[in-house]
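Hey, resending since the last one bounced:
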Amino acid sequence: MAKIQLLNENVSSRIAAGEVVERPASVVKELVENSIDAGAKNISVSVTEGGLRSITVSDNGEGMSREDLPLSVLKHATSKIYTLQDLEHINSMGFRGEALSSIAAVSMVEIRTKTPDDELGTILVNKGGRTESIKDAGLSDGTTVTVENLFFNTPARKKFMRKPSLETAYINDILSKLVLSHPDISFRFTSDGKVQLQSPGNGVLRDAVYSIYGTELKDQLIDIDYSFNSIFVRGVIGLPSLTYRTMRHGTLFINSRYVKNDFVFLNIKKAYGERLMKHNFPFYVLNIMMPPEDVDVNVHPTKMAVDFRDKNEIEYVITNAVGNALNKNEYAKEISFSSSYRKKEEKAPTENSAFIRRYDEKTEFKSASEQTHNLNTKPAARDKYRLDPKKYENIETIINLSKEISDRGREEEDTNDQPPLNEAFNIPTNTETGSKPVQSLFSDDISFRVAGTIFKTYIVVECPPDTVYLIDQHAAHERKIYDELMKSVLEKKVSQRLLSPIRFEVSAEERYLILENMDVIKDMGFDFSDEGEGYFDLIEYPQVLGQENIRQTFQDMIKQMDEGGSFEIRKDKIAKGACKRAIKGGMDISEADIKELILTIRKTGTIPHCPHGRPLSIALTRSELEKTFGREE
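The structure tokens again:
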């Protein structure tokens, strides 16, 4: 007897269904995408028990005729593609021709549909992949699909489903992405009779973003509208202050289809550059519109993996779209002593506040707006830094807070801790009070007066008529040194020749690193002679670094070399190692040096962050001070 046999239709259809229908969220995704392809402008999704009991998706799209309806639940039936060539020009959301067939194979399905041209609509009932009835009925235009008892005939699959609350979270996540990719469509999602998500559908992306993440982001977003050749990038990105400890707050669409692509993400992060502190990730919602034939959509159930025919062009487009927008929107962080950090109970959730929910093993879902705002620290540390306006009753305590804020930045830079996987999509409240962010001291030619320094660490600068800046002198000096080092590579500046060489003893590994990176080292203005037996003599040295503690600077550079990479990457790392020797907190700095430092950074026109991502300055406005002292009218 032959060992290989053809599976019967009943078994093969359920196997095929397993490739498409992983869980209730998969059903919702397929049905809603069909609604979008049908031209719907209003889509309603309703589930009970996380979609395991029932899922209903209603739309006001074009509907199906009586002739097409029976075909819609057959395998490989589709209205999206007809020839092999069509696979290279996919513009629709769904295209496989297996969605309804696969869903019907593992559930009980009822489809109610009507086209605008038909007087009557049609109702189809299918159970376990078999159509039981088709009849005419008086219906409104559009389609309503009801899926009940999902996996009733595949108990092995059903037992692997999670709690209804978690299945609801999966559905909410998928619908949130569809809201962001189609702001011109109004979505409404209810679970067990409670509204979980509702978007306006007015075509304004920012309003769609607010319906998902809340209006706390209002003053922290930058609009993107960039084009190059036949590629268009539109969407929003967050200011550098709006960062997270995971990558989950970046959403990418290709031709309005949600995708995951590491190449694009790395170029977005590259565009942010030193604006991001170590281990922090930016917020973005970007839609890249491009000719379908230039992007390879991997034809598989999730449709998330894509590749590009010309990666160099994509890299150019992404880095310029994001980089140009950031350059035009450089702001200083603003200190606020108002009650920006509210306790949970002080802000009641509403239907249209943040709708991304989290699953907790001990509790049900909690709205992101109900949770303490994320300061990129663990909960205990987060509580430590919550501000209490009553504490700040005099100018001395206000100024003292500057040290706490800067120390917080250093802690965030050094920590490697990651939040738990089930942590919410917390949206950190901007430290601003809702007004337009304050212009960076380093990005505009505004007048300033050096008022002095505090703690031998922070420079106090007054900019009439209404802003005071606190500058971290170490971060600012680092920025200046780093920029001049990188500039020296391009301009081939003459180095300072030492009167007598400085000898270094190095290990075998360090010697190898120096020789491997000698091209970069020399381009930066250093020159060594290899004396053998583990010794190098330093002959020339970049003037910008001065001659203080040269030995320690050299050791810092070697540590950075170990990570290797391309010429550009190594150049960047070595420069960062060298500039660690900048003026430290606690060192005296003259007023003349302060002015020269500010003017030099302004002249270079670089970003107002140190090479490690920390801001150079924070701002305190007069209006915020007057509010704190009760002087506001």
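Residues 205-332 form a domain with the Ribosomal Protein S5; domain 2 fold (CATH 3.30.230.10).

Sorry for the duplicate.
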